[in-house]
């Protein structure tokens, strides 16, 4: 199953609610991921551009998009960024395929 990096920034209202009533929101996401056929491999609170970072496994892009859309539509998140992750083997296959794709850039590579 494909893996995804999910990065979330909470709204200021959501952060205020979490400060007033701390809770592990990853437990909620784990249940939703399981219902959609996936699972959360890990989640971390962070500081910087994103407040929460997760790695999850989902059956397909549609399921990954569904969980991201549901989270974004809820109003607690101001940003939900989902990045598909390739294994190194998949990345190597993509590099090999790119070499034979026939793509011609506007200007040659330096």
Structure description:
This protein is α+β, with helices and mostly antiparallel strands and 110 residues long. Helix content is 40%, strand content 27%. A 4-stranded antiparallel beta sheet has the order 2-3-1-4.
Offer a few descriptive terms:
27% strand; alpha+beta; 4 strands; 110 residues; single chain; 4-stranded antiparallel β-sheet; Alpha-Beta Plaits; elongated
Describe the structure in brief:
The protein is of the alpha+beta class. 40% of the residues lie in helices and 27% in strands.
How much of the sequence lies in strands comes to: 25-35%
Averaged pLDDT, please? 94
Number of strands: 4
Helix content: 40-55%
Order of helices and strands: EHHEEHEH
Overall geometry? elongated
Describe the largest sheet.
4 strands, antiparallel
Q: Report the radius of gyration as a whole number of Å.
A: 18 Å
Alpha-beta classification: alpha+beta
The level 1 CATH classification is: Alpha Beta
Give the N-to-C terminal Cα separation: 37 Å
Low-confidence stretches: none
Q: What is the number of helices?
A: 4
CATH architecture: 2-Layer Sandwich
| Widest β-sheet, arrangement of strands | 2-3-1-4
CATH superfamily: Lrp/AsnC effector binding domain/regulation of amino acid metabolism (RAM) domain
Number of domains: 1
**CATH fold category name:** Alpha-Beta Plaits
């Amino acid at each position: 199953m494909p893996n995804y990096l999910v990065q979330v920034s909470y709204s200021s209202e959501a952060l205020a609610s979490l400060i007033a009533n701390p809770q592990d929101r990853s437990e909620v996401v784990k249940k939703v991921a399981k219902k959609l056929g996936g699972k959360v491999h890990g989640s971390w609170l962070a500081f910087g551009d994103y407040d929460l970072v997760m790695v999850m496994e989902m059956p397909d892009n549609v399921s990954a998009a569904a969980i991201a859309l549901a989270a974004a539509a809820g109003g607690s998140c101001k940003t939900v960024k989902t990045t598909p992750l390739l294994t190194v083997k998949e990345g190597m296959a993509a590099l090999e395929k790119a070499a034979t794709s026939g793509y011609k850039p506007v200007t040659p590579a330096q």
